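Table S2 (text version). Query chain:
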Amino acid sequence: MIGDISEDDVFLDVGAGLGNIVAQFALQTNAGQCLGIEKRAEVVYAGLQCVRSSAARLLNLRKVRVLIGDILDTPLSCCPPFQAASIVYLNDFLFEEPAKLAVREDLCEMPKARVIISTSLYCSRHRDKCQDPFCARWQLEETMYGRANVDKALVRAKVRHDGPGVGMLGNGCVGGSADPKFVQSVVAWDCRAAVQGL
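Corresponding structure-token output:
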């Protein structure tokens, strides 16, 4: 969980796949909306079919929207509904470098984002007084390890919070946020469990 989550929060999973994480977040939190973006249409359709089959019993699944789109063609920071995201999750270790760079730039420009959970460093040469635009906005808060899948080894996840500054930074990134939230766990949701009555 990520501290206090209210109906004002919008969760976004970039590279959502079937939407497992999106559905899990919808089921376990008070977030008002849970979004995902995935470029493989057949994967999105399979995941949405699973969500729809369980939505009558698990009403929080009605908050789930996974949209088909490529992050190279979809500027998350200015494209509705993604621009409203306050919590962003990226299991991006399989992303190609151009996609990682596009997401990195978008994360700096997302006006409401306050927490990022990712599997990438984004600044490989980070140091205390780093002047990188990403580091100017986002502070590394915690590194944790969890399973991305039941069958896989532990994966490192980086948790970043909006920096201490308030207002527009020189790099065009909007800074500042209310109290930072701490991530205690990231859990994968298996849609088969939901169908069987989670």
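Notes on Table S2: The two ends are 18 Å apart (CA to CA). Residues 41-54 form the longest helix (14 residues).
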